[in-house]
Amino acid sequence: MYDLKKARGTVDRDEITRRTRGMWRWEEFLPVIHRENQIFLGEGDTPLLSLPRLQQELGLTNLFVKDESSNPTGSFKARGLAAAVSKAKELGVEKVIIPTAGNAGGAMAAYAARAGLRAHIFMPKDTPLANIEESRMTGADVILVDGLISDASGMAGIKAREEGWFDVSTFKEPYRVEGKKVMGYELAESFDWTLPDVIVYPTGGGTGLVGMWKAFAELEELGWLKNTKRPRMVSVQAEGCAPVVKAFQAKANFCDFWTNAQTVASGLRVPKSFADHLIMQDIYDSNGTAIAVSDEALLESQGQLARAEGIFAAPEGAATLAALKDLIAQGWVQKDEKIVLFNTGSGLKYLDLANK
Ligand SMILES: *Cc1c(COP(=O)(O)O)cnc(C)c1O
Prior knowledge:
- This protein is of the alpha/beta class.
- The chain has 2 domains: 48-75 and 174-354, Rossmann fold, CATH 3.40.50.1100; 77-167, Rossmann fold (3-Layer(aba) Sandwich).
- 42% of the residues lie in helices and 14% in strands.
- The protein has helices at residues 4-10, 13-18, 52-58, 77-90, 103-115, 129-137, 149-163, 176-190, 207-222, 243-249, 276-285, 295-309, 315-330; strands spanning 48-50, 63-67, 95-99, 118-124, 141-145, 166-167, 198-202, 232-238, 289-293, 339-343.
- A 6-stranded mixed beta sheet has the order 1-2-10-7-8-9, sandwiched between helices. Strands 5-4-3-6 form a 4-stranded parallel beta sheet, sandwiched between helices.
- Strand 3, helix 5 (103-115) and strand 4 form a beta-alpha-beta unit.
- Helix 4 (77-90) packs parallel to helix 5.
- It starts with a helix and ends in a 13-residue tail after the last strand.
- Pyridoxal-5'-phosphate binds at residues 75, 77, 103, 170, 202-208, 267, 314, 316, 344-345.
């Protein structure tokens, strides 16, 4: 584990910048103790891209995308699962189990294969084909569930208790969020140890949002930030599954379970996060907001981002652009603010959408 007070005196942020690329160059702040347990497939250090053509279309001047699609298995889930599977290995675990909306399962299967662990995955039967295939290909035992991630979660929980397997469900173990927080460190480093004004993030289980907010607090404690101005966090969801948006509008601290969740953005098809109170707290603390977009709007934005900048985003990532357009229309963001969209995955993982 790590001790921020100690790190403040002994870890040098500029030395970290000189290390070999990847998530593990932040090892002092990650939960794995012995380096030989760090399972590395190339995760982390994704590009922060400026968007000159898109920002012109939108009338903005300081727009970026943190493009997570280049992570192993094509989504940012790789970060969290790299941390969790590495720690599981270090703890002597042999079997890991996860309920997933798709990408977390594929990522867990890959890291489990590389760690020599057995992976058991419960996912909805209408999960994108890429997620099912990548999981099977890497040797996982895949159970297709007639229902949503919430149903898969119930089944996996029972199995985990019966068999004593290590449960890697979102926020039911403490390690995935640690891997995800590195996105926050990378952002600060890319902006020369300052933070952007606004972060627009597609929210399902919420590990990315909660993880980055944690990273900002840690960076502040380390004394590494040139100023302590925090970004406003925007949580983006799909209209067909928007528990965080509904809670935000009601000024609530918890989310209600969303019934009949439906959206093409499978990573956002999470009826209720286990960490809903943390998500809400971080949005409020940051003076942020929560916004829902239609599938039609996010698919249109997917095309716009691809045509303007050559980035074929996952529908979840494209949802952030659709939301940004609403925020501009509302006057919630200003022209010159530094805004970062998160493209959390590759559009190539969703080719079954093209047949729908
Ligand atoms: C899981 C996922 C999300 C949602 O991320 P959380 O951290 O669970 O909120 C967004 N986009 C993609 C592509 C995902 O796989």
